[in-house]
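Take a look at this chain, tokens included, and explain the fold to me:
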Amino acid sequence: MFEFLQKVSDRRTVFPFLSPDGEGGVLAEWHARKQRIEIEVDGDGNGLFYASDADGREVLAGEVSPQSEHKLRRLLLDLSVRVDLENPTWRALFAR
């Protein structure tokens, strides 16, 4: 998951919620009202993803690949920009 997150995020990206899947994998989730992006990486390093738009409609789903990484990066940036516009102090929640 760490390697994948490095590929699809940068300093502007909202932090995901991370949770174990109970079988050795990890689930990363981003939510902004109805929009959501979910990426699951199993214990073997295989990844699946799901993304919906601001209206909650599915826009992308499938297996993680180099082609989908670019699309997910764009979707994450768009979601992060929306979150930052609505709540520019969100990073303070994670400050020490």
Notes: The first helix runs from residue 2 to 8. Strands lie at 17-20, 26-32, 35-41, 47-52, 58-63.
